[in-house]
Design brief:
Helix content is 19%, strand content 27%. It is built from 3 helices and 12 strands.
Amino acid sequence: MNALRQARRSTVFETVFLLAVAVGLAITLQAYAVKPYKIPSGSMEPTLQVGDRVLVDRFSHRILGDEPKVGDVVVFHPPHGADDAASPHCGAAGQGEGTPTPCSRPTATRSSQSFIKRVVGVAGDRVALQNGHVIRNGKPTSEPFAAPCDPGTGGCDFPNAITVPRGSVYLLGDNRGNSDDSRFWGPVPDGWVVGKAVATYWPPSRISGGK
């Protein structure tokens, strides 16, 4: 009888221990490796729809030090200039909304919000826009993922190129006519990037890997 009780206690202990390890691994995985993110707006349509849920790889960027690349879709903290959705502001006077020059400098501090956009330029790149499409280093880029930009919405044309600062990325939504992004509040320091979106996992009809 004592042996049976001891065996039961051992089984309970093992079960509790395994559950604790599983919970610990799950918390660690979310904190340092992979984090879910829900798409809050239509700024990344048609690539990502409102309500889509994506997995964000934090490990490669934060632990391995991989730098974001042109074409990556990333989750990041924008500068405080992006906090006012009605009128985002640039850290450089005479640039951004209502001017021929995209914003070249963010405000000094970052926001606590999390956004998701596509990298269209990295340090040293010269970036301008024509009809909503990026002109990078003087050459039009292929952007089959981008939705048409209606000139009536503003922000489709920024003919005066800016240079992306060292240690920063330039980020635009795929829905250029309906996205507050680097055009209006500037580049984002690499350190403000959370990670790369690697897969859509919800809803089931939109499950896909890579962006």
